[in-house]
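Assemble and predict.
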Amino acid sequence: MSIDIEGISKTFGGFVALDNVSLKVPSGELVALLGPSGSGKTSLLRIIAGLETPDSGRILFDGKEATKRQVQERQVGFVFQHYALFRHMTVFDNIAFGLTVKPKKIRPGKQEIRDKVNKLLKLIQLENLADRYPAQLSGGQRQRVALARALAVEPQVLLLDEPFGALDAKVRLELRRWLRRLHDEIHVTSVFVTHDQEEALEVADRIVVMNHGRIEQQGTPSEVYDHPATPFVYDFLGSVNLFHGRVHEGTAQMGGINLSSPEYALANDAPAVGYVRSHDIAIERQAGDPGAIKAEVRYLLSVGPLVRVDLLLPDGNRTIEVDLTREEAERLQLSIGEQVFARPRKMRVFVDDYQI
Amino acid sequence: MMQVGKMTQRWEGKGAVTEPTWVRYLLVTAALAFLALFLLMPLAAVFVQALDKGWEAYLEALKEPDTISAIRLTLITAAVCVPLNLFFGIVASWAIAKFSFRGKSFLITLIDLPFSVSPVVSGLIYVLIFGLQGWLGPWLQTHDIKIIFAIPGIILATVFVTFPFVARELIPLMESQGREEEEAALTLGASGLQTFFRVTFPNIKWGILYGVILCNARAMGEFGAVSVVSGHVRGSTNTIPLQVEILYNEYNYAAAFAVASLLALLALVTLAIKTVSEWKMQQSISVAGKER
């Protein structure tokens, strides 16, 4: 089922949670709503579910008006960050709940419910824990039960609110890969909310980046990551270095580097900021390239597969972060206090108040 | 090295905030002595006095028609008040814990009002409204409806005094449980009633029992407010506490204590149920806590 969101606004007291948001979720896609807390992503999800009513705007399911539909009629599966399992019911009863509350006429028989729950238990690989209570399960197991419970009613849409937010790092990684595989199998239209860019990049077909109740950018993970549309998106996805400078008639001057930025051909000595990802900077010993900045190695730190290098710029008070691969770091054999040259491989320039 | 080992041991063994052993024993003894002197001794005294003249006299005192009438009236009052306040308590705490609306804190204050008003004043309020000299008095008289110095007045005063018990118990419990489980039930297609009976109620049932038991104890034991509106008509508008007072004032100590022992027994039963439900309730909260 496809979802159309048209001009949704919502305020809580004086706080604008959503400001005229429009979005299309095509049928069968897995879409991530990504943004910092307070960006309105959870409000949007709850409005799609019918748990919250928008102040204005419309929600369409498969092109049909659904704004006024009750939660119960929307056929959405909702997965909560803190699982919201029924604590006094066993795993089995939790999963069966949606089937047992159906009106008598369409309620499946006992055996049918049992078969279906067992099938779902198998899907979430918890067949032997059917008689446990939620309190006796680990976080990852609980979230899988919550997912099975939502899937039991065969929802048209699956909505997940920070589904892995309360789990520890390893379980989170496992579970999101599992979710991706599951989606590839059942292809139910899914929207999930996250503030974790890595999670969104890995799991989603499409990413919708939100900030201050508005959509900043939407696109495939590589579109959003490789071509951020706004400074906010650049900042939010991955670690980034800022260079302050000026743009004049299509040429940007950033901390001693000149580079052409044809999109600002009309700019007249405008203040601008250059964004460079920390892994898009090369460190060299020789100043072979005119686009390189002289800097001093301040700090070296290995973070898993990467080595993070802090460089002090010649002005003496600004540092930039560079991520090197292990091999590169071993080749360079950097030492603290050494003079090197940093060359941005890819920089994106944004003129202040000059949105593209 | 030795030093560090010692330090850790001391930390684990006693904890930084634990007092020396003799201080702990002193404090515990003081508390127990106080309890024995002011709570257990009077309680024991009630039963000793009640059985002063033997079992025969005890049972005789309870079989007295005025006493039986007082017991019946007390039971009727509790039978009306407890369901009323149970219903109100669940509705109010549901509204307060699961929704946000204008005037919410005012409603909470209002629920607490009977706790902060002296019961005598609560009784007087009803006399002022329904009494002969009160606002509705003349109208009630022409229509031959008796509220003050009759059973309806006693029930009204008791309902007022026992108003907060169930709601006060449930509001914090329901707030601590949040509303996600209910929301989950709704997204799974459950109706409002199904959500209440299958999701909310099982989570709050021990809290409800706790509130009901306290509400019942107060409804049966209330003296001040009932005393003002009852008129003390023997065999007709006397509840158990009022009957105890009358017997006592007539120097009929054995009978007074015999009737009082009923209330004391009620207190013991209440305490037992309260302890169990409190324990169960704690369990359900800690399960909820673990789930977060």
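Chain A touches chain B at residues 49-51, 71-72, 74-78, 80, 82-88, 97-98, 101-102, 133-135, 142, 146, 149-150, 152-153, 166 (CB under 8 Å).
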